[in-house]
Specification:
Its main location: membrane. It is found in: Cell membrane; Membrane. The chain has two domains: 1-200, SecY subunit domain (Preprotein translocase SecY subunit, Orthogonal Bundle), CATH 1.10.3370; 202-400, SecY subunit domain (Preprotein translocase SecY subunit, Orthogonal Bundle). Helices cover 69% and strands 5% of the residues. The protein has helices spanning 2-10, 12-31, 41-48, 59-64, 68-71, 80-95, 97-104, 107-138, 157-184, 189-199, 202-213, 215-237, 273-289, 297-305, 312-333, 336-345, 357-392, 402-427; strands spanning 239-246, 249-251, 254-256, 260-266, 348-349. A three-stranded antiparallel sheet has the order 4-1-5. A two-stranded antiparallel sheet has the order 2-3. A hairpin with a 2-residue loop joins strand 2 (249-251) and strand 3 (254-256).
């Protein structure tokens, strides 16, 4: 393994790409610790270290920002506005014909959709930054912990505007850094930045488990984590391959077609998106309750069932929502009718299945059958941190589970594949033998 890494760095072109990627990652992590202007940084550090802190509705954003959200840094919003804008752009293809037409235009249409995503990212960043500043002023960001209400030194409209503009500019810079990695580095830039943010919290999570639970529980968590990672890698690599045969056809004096290929349908076709959707939906009640009167009955009910995540009602809701959003997202992103039409247009067919409508029905049947175990798998993975909360009281510290594990494994596998393919082009030998 070390020899393979050495070969990668001895290749000038690949070495430059790897060093460029590592440099961008270092800049990204550095920006996560630079405080926004007008923020009482010393007081923020005390609030972050407070044992009474509960991240609540901001846990997902803080996870994707690598802890920058609670630090109120210039990169406090992280990559979440871009992720949200990308998901919205994908969903709008279903309801806006113009977006679907751009998607089918090829490279030019994709460039236009990317531009729309950038504009939407900046708009969402302004909205998120305004919401974040409002929660900081009310003290809701740190769960109304004493001494965490007056964190903004300049509470005038100008001071607040500077903070909002700084955080919005930070999101734009993160988006640019991710695109630079994609163009000039190795791997998908946005995914690698998310990977970096999540992986940055692993050392502190392991340290907290070791200090609070002891060496026995710590070793047990490591062992269970390795088993879970192996199972997730196995499922993420699993796919159903539907064979496709292309008929021979004459174009002028040349013969085309006659080849065999397959349509790969992954068990986890939706990726990590359903877990993000489910977490966001379940965070909404907790977020709304922070703006209500603690004495109200509905606020107390939400605090009992939908805040900590250790109640069976919360777990069942999380599991069912993950299954629902898995089917929903797969139905939007994979269109059997479009795939069947493309196959028919180019003379392709599934052996034993007639082209056209029968092919569409067969693809829908296979997709439904393969999505069911995939949705159950995502639901179980999403529940791992909640089960850890009940068993060892380590929800915030348990690194192996839910969104973090899916992203770490998925991005890691994809990046290793890209490095492996580039090394095979030059040395006829990949990164892993």
């Amino acid at each position: 393994m070390l020899g393979a890494v050495g070969r990668a760095f001895r290749t000038p072109d690949l070495r430059n790409k790897l060093l460029f990627t590592l440099g961008i990652i270092v800049l990204f992590r550095l920006g996560s610790f630079i405080p926004s202007p007008g923020i009482d940084y010393a007081q923020v550090q005390e609030c972050v270290a407070s044992p009474q802190l509960t991240q609540g509705a901001f846990g997902m954003i803080n996870l994707f920002s690598g802890g920058a959200l609670l630090q109120l840094s210039i990169f406090a919003l992280g990559i979440m506005p871009y992720i949200t804008a990308s998901i919205i752009t994908q969903l709008l293809r279903v309801v806006i014909p113009r977006f679907e037409a751009l998607h089918k235009e090829g490279a030019s249409g994709q460039a236009k959709l990317t531009q729309y995503t950038r504009y939407m990212t900046l708009g969402l960043a302004v909205l998120n930054a305004t919401t974040l500043v409002s929660t900081v002023r009310t003290g809701a960001l740190f769960g109304n912990v004493a001494g965490c209400q007056d964190l903004i030194m300049n509470d005038s409209w100008w001071g607040i505007g500077v903070i909002i503009m700084t955080m919005t500019a930070g999101t734009g810079l993160i988006m640019w850094l991710g695109e630079q990695i994609t163009e000039r580095g190795v791997g998908n830039g946005m995914s690698l930045l998310i990977f970096t943010s999540i992986a940055a919290g692993f050392p502190s999570s392991f340290g907290n488990i070791l200090n609070s639970q002891g060496i026995d529980i710590f070793l047990l968590v490591i062992l269970v984590g390795l088993v879970i990672v192996c199972l997730v890698v196995f499922v993420e690599q699993s796919q159903r391959r539907i064979p496709v045969q292309y008929a021979k056809r004459m174009v002028g004096r040349r013969m085309f077609g006659g080849t065999s290929t397959y349509i790969p349908i992954k068990v986890n076709q939706a990726g990590v998106i359903p877990v993000i959707f489910s977490s966001s939906v379940l965070y909404l009640p907790s977020l709304l309750s922070q703006f209500g009167d603690p004495e109200d009955q509905w606020v107390q009910w939400i605090g009992t069932y939908f805040t900590q995540g250790d109640h069976p009602i919360y777990m069942v809701s999380y599991f069912l929502l993950t299954i629902f959003f898995t089917f929903f997202y797969v139905a939007i992103t994979f269109n059997p009718e479009e795939v069947a039409d493309n196959m028919k247009r180019y003379g392709g067919f599934i052996p034993g299945i007639r082209a056209g409508r029968p092919t569409e029905q067969y693809l829908s049947y296979v997709l439904t059958r393969i999505t069911l175990p995939g949705s159950l798998y995502l639901g179980c993975v999403a529940l791992i941190p909640l089960v850890a909360l009940v068993l060892i009281n380590a929800n915030q510290d348990f690194p192996f589970g839910g969104t973090s594990l899916l992203i770490i494994v998925g991005v890691g596998l994809e990046t290793v594949k890209q490095i492996n393919s580039q090394m095979q082009q030059r040395h006829y030998e990949g990164l892993l033998r």
